[in-house]
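Model: You mentioned two targets. I'll fold them one after the other.
Researcher: Yes, keep them separate.
Model: Target one:
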Amino acid sequence: MKKIILSVLGHDRPGILAAVSELLLVNGCNIENASQTILQSVFGSLLLVTLPEDLSPDTLRSRMSATLSGMALDIFIKEFPSSLVQEPVVQPTEAFILTAFGPDQPGLVSAVSRCVANHGINISNLRAVFKGGNEPGDNVMIFEVDIPVGVDLKQVNNDLDKIAVRLNLTINLQHRGIFNAMNRI
């Protein structure tokens, strides 16, 4: 079983994901995991794809480039290391949502991501929108994080509070279940 990581970037417009996923289907590929976002006007997608045994990553890249040439997309394919095909045994975690609001300034993502990394917390998803200025609602970061069981949540919150004071942010860390119930997502 051959796996690849497929990255697609281009100017956003309707139909990019449809065209890419249809092309993968026609070539006998299976999308196992996918993440897609829009950054201002740039479409970005990252997909973990299983290839049929008779299809090489280079052949797929050539077919994608030819078929999607009119869409002006940047396509990058990297073979998924076979050592990662088997899921590693990991420590049990709980899902939390970390939100941060405040004035736009350099270092926001860096400060929060370093803090959680220092506690062994993995960021599984991040959505950050910075429109500039001091309106907190215009500058939002939402981190989905997996916190290992046994991590001292009080210490994590203390460290996040220090960042909040230093960068004039409002930071909240909530268990995903509580966040979902309060925000009905």
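Model: Target two:
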Amino acid sequence: MKKEDKNLIIEQIVNSLNEYSHFYLTDAAGLTADLTSDLRRACFKNEIKFVVVKNTLLKRALEQKGDFSQLYSLLEGPTALMLSNTGNAPAKLLKEFAKGNKVGKPVLKGAFVEESFYVGADQLDALVSIKSKNELIGDIVTLLQSPAKNVISALQSGGTTLHGVLKTLSEK
């Protein structure tokens, strides 16, 4: 491959990394063509970009993007890059897809999610349980609304009780 071609591919990888806020490094070797097609379809449905990359080119792209040295040791053997704007979507897909086939692949090598590094396949359950930014905002809004709802509920129930007492007294 010519140096110009390599530089172009590195630039495309950097652009993809800039476009998405989270990425996963996976090993999808050993998947049949049908399973690979199914995985790509599932990625497309979940708004995940799935790209098979050369390790040296990905390493150069990561070096240009910032300090990702914790992931460099994972760039051995076949590597597929999964890019997403939802932190836990690729983890859920990986877990579901690997469980549903006999090969048990793809396997998580590592990930960069919510500005943290996750190294090893044992981190998959932790990544599945990570909440997205929108889910966290929803939880906070719910927590903030809860006391206000309790006060309103107490005032409304007190109003009906007070109305009942006044009605009873007026009837006597």
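Researcher: Noted. Anything on target two?
Model: Residues 150 and 156 are 10 Å apart (CA to CA).
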